[in-house]
């Protein structure tokens, strides 16, 4: 299972950032990221990391294997969402996405079952 450190290192590499550069961008002490192998950072640090790496906090935390930020799926203009509500808004969008995927899978199974019956 990938840790937050593994996922952070992978995305930083894809973005052409060293971990030192990432630490500087998110405003944490040098070599702090290496402690993430066994310790989960503060929520604010995770959010800043996700923002710099253009991913979601859910991806960094291992809640999803899709590194695409949820607002990319919906092409949401987040400037209309108050700053203090953005994380809640993204969580709601994630739940909507998960619900939609589940419904699509159920419909696909239903169609498969109907084809088998015919």
From TrEMBL:
Matches recorded under CDD domains: HTH_XRE
Record keywords, A-Z: DNA-binding
SUPFAM superfamilies: lambda repressor-like DNA-binding domains
Single annotated GO MF: DNA binding
HTH cro/C1-type domain location: 9-60
Alphabetical list of InterPro entries matching this protein: Cro/C1-type_HTH (IPR001387), Lambda_DNA-bd_dom_sf (IPR010982)
Protein name (record): DNA-binding helix-turn-helix protein
